[in-house]
Amino acid sequence: MIAPGTMSELAFNKYKRCQWWFLVALSIGFLIIGQSAAVILGRFYYDQGGNSKWMATLVQTAAFPLLFIPLYTIPSPAETSTSVSSSIKVIVLIYFCLGVLIAADNMMYSTGLLYLSASTYSLICASQLAFNAVFSYFINAQKFTLLIINSTVVLTFSASLLAINEDSQEPSGLSQGKYLIGFLCTLGASAAYSLLLSLMQLTFEKVLKKETFSVVLEMQIYTSLVATGAAVIGLFASGEWRTMHGEMESFGKGQVAYVMTLVWTAIAWQVCSVGVVGLIFLVSSLYSNVISTVSLAVTPIAAVIVFHDKMNGVKIISMLLALWGFASYIYQNYLDDAKARRAQAHSQNDSAC
To answer: Which Gene Ontology MF annotations are present (predicted)?
Structure first.
């Protein structure tokens, strides 16, 4: 049997070894590429004059209709007779609650970034791994090995080192009250994000109990629908929608660049989200968060290429630490995979006898 919480037994038993590793690798690529691109585009949006918190929140989920394309074009195997279907009302309620949590989480992140420097913001965001470790232990019965502990600690140090290296100071003229709001919002967003991942894993295992990858897309679509609706309501209720036209006209690179920045930011966040949910389904919520933290070290490489940022020794060390932590977790998955496959083979041989 697979160690509780180490790998998703539901997905592991469904796919062959090469298929499972391919989907894991694909999800990792989606998460890292999507998150890195979204962060770079988000920075570009603010650098060129964008300042809407609700618009920054909205674009994180607004591109969900694109997921209907793979949902209806990629064939999905028929459900097995052992699959258990939960009440539609229960599933709708879960999707609604998760969607509202996503919207609140996105808004807290946007508020935190508005009131804090990039260094302080990134340092606080690094705490999400610690939050996820706690939630995974109590909600998902995550089993911790020395390799997993090593990976979690090293990746947290990597992100913290990168954050401390930032030269930027707190925004000028910032009051103590706004700084406190930014700090609490970012800390709350880190905790909420970690809780969200654990709840998604619990939903896959205890409620949906489906064995097809399409369930990943369905969860992402319907929770994003709720989150987008909440963001739209917030955009109009706050009155920020009135400033959109002026913001577009004053955008540094022009109106077309403004629209394309928002469009591609939304697409990048959806690519990232599919990777996040896919890793929760295939492995665990903690693993998904580990890969999210790895992208904190990948993003500076993109920043060097796009914005010509300096690559100093601290950033290089941070990336090496991230690769070390990533390799530790991958090796733990390799050991779990080999052990589970041997147990599965022995079980089949005993049945044949």
So the answer is: purine nucleobase transmembrane transporter activity; purine nucleoside transmembrane transporter activity
CA 212, CA 77: separation in Å to the nearest integer? 7
| Cβ atoms of residues 87 and 167 within 8 Å | no
Which pair of structure tokens corresponds to residue 203?
A: 């939903």
- For 132, the token pair is 């996820």
Residues recorded for the chain: 353
- CA distances (Å), 1 to each of 89, 104, 247, 345, in order? 32, 37, 56, 11
pTM comes to 0.76
CB neighbourhood size of 320 (10 A): 13
Give the model confidence (pLDDT) of 122-177 as tens digits: 667 766 777 877 888 888 777 777 877 887 788 777 767 766 665 545 555 567 78
- Which token pair is 75? 């064939």
Write out the two tokens for 133: 């470790």
The rounded distance, in Å, linking the Cα atoms of 224 and 61 is 5
Taking every pair of C-alpha atoms in the chain, what is the biggest distance, in angstroms?
77
Distance CA 28, CA 36 (A): 12
Closest CA to 162 of 65, 303, 341: 303
Cα separation, 47 vs 296, in Å, equals: 19
Q: Two tokens at 139? A: 């909600």
